[in-house]
Amino acid sequence: MDTFAPVSPRVSVLRSTAAATDGPLAEGREFIWSDADFTRIKALIYKKAGISLHDGKHAMVYSRVSRRLRETGHGSFKSYLDWLEQHDGGEWQEFINALTTNLTAFFREQHHFGILADLLAARRTHDWRIWCSAASTGEEPYSIAMTAAETLGPQGRFHIVNSDIDTQVLATAQRGIYKADGVKGLSAERMQRFFMRGKGGNAGLMRVKPELQKHMGFQTVNLIHELPFHEPFDAVFCRNVMIYFDAATQRQVLERIHRVMKPGGMLFVGHAENFSDARNLFALRGKTVYERL
């Protein structure tokens, strides 16, 4: 039977240096592609997910949405989009999944985890509630969980709610299984403490240990809709998400996040994000870290 075993302290982890990117479009497109198709897709993804696409995204949009044409058997973008708009079914989620971008790594923007550790250390006996609002394939939420476990110790009380609009990447996060040669940013000590190594048919894979996963919850959340939370959070990670929204959508999302945070709670954002226009909601307290007012 294929299993996972504890990681030996001598196991070395190969580190991938290449980032996944969309390949260039092949010469001679399979489907006719027009400015009207792009404009229509641009309007639909903005309406459904708040994502604002600029004109430089033509090749990316063609590449990703053409996969949906093949999957659904449509011969043109017009045919597919006409059909999509006439049906309120699961294909809308596939359409959104196709157009979301998921670039992540363990302990990405590492300074945030030092700040989080200091925050947790100041109240070790607190019941911590943390929301990772763009969990992607799970590297970010498990980095948060490892930081909490290391800081709070075996008796630490914390729960991390992990969400994403993309159901496919969220399912990967919930499984917590990663290729050994694709794991980045983890020391041998963390691999030994928090992961199990695959055996047999699972060779070359690493699985997050149940002791860490028990602190995690997963659910699909669309940030442009009202948030489905009733208990407020002590900290929220919403990193490299706002860059895909226009100014009006950013403001609306920030107001929603503000409503589900405790006063004094900390909001962690991406390195390219600045919320100086929301000074009545959040105050800058560190490098891309804001306090909920």
Our count of domains comes out at 2
CATH homology superfamily of the largest domain: Vaccinia Virus protein VP39
Structural class: alpha/beta
The CATH topology of the largest domain is what? Rossmann fold
Percent in helix: 25-40%
Mean pLDDT reading: 91
Looking at how many chains there are and whether they match, the oligomeric state comes to single chain
Please summarize the sheet with the most strands: 7 strands, mixed
Number of E-type strands: 11
Secondary structure tally, helices: 10
Low-confidence segments, given as residue ranges, are: 10-27
Overall geometry: globular
Top-tier CATH class of the largest domain: Alpha Beta
The helix/strand order is EHHHHHEHEHEHEEHEEHEEE
Distance between the termini: 53 Å
Short descriptors:
single chain, 293 residues, alpha/beta, Chemotaxis Receptor Methyltransferase Cher, domain 1, Rossmann fold, seven-stranded mixed β-sheet, four-stranded antiparallel β-sheet, 10 helices, 11 strands, globular
What's the SSE blueprint?
Elements: E1 4-6, H1 35-49, H2 58-72, H3 77-86, H4 91-99, H5 111-121, E2 127-132, H6 139-152, E3 157-164, H7 167-175, E4 177-179, H8 188-194, E5 195-198, E6 205-208, H9 210-213, E7 216-220, E8 233-238, H10 247-259, E9 261-269, E10 282-286, E11 289-292
Parallel strand pairs: 2-3, 2-8, 3-7, 8-9
Antiparallel strand pairs: 1-5, 4-6, 5-6, 9-11, 10-11
Describe the structure.
- With about 290 residues, the protein is α/β, with parallel strands linked by helices.
- Helices cover about 35% and strands about 20% of the residues.
- It has a 7-stranded mixed sheet with strand order 7-3-2-8-9-11-10, sandwiched between helices. It has a 4-stranded antiparallel sheet with strand order 1-5-6-4.
- Strand 2, helix 6 and strand 3 form a beta-alpha-beta unit.
- About 5% of the residues have low confidence.
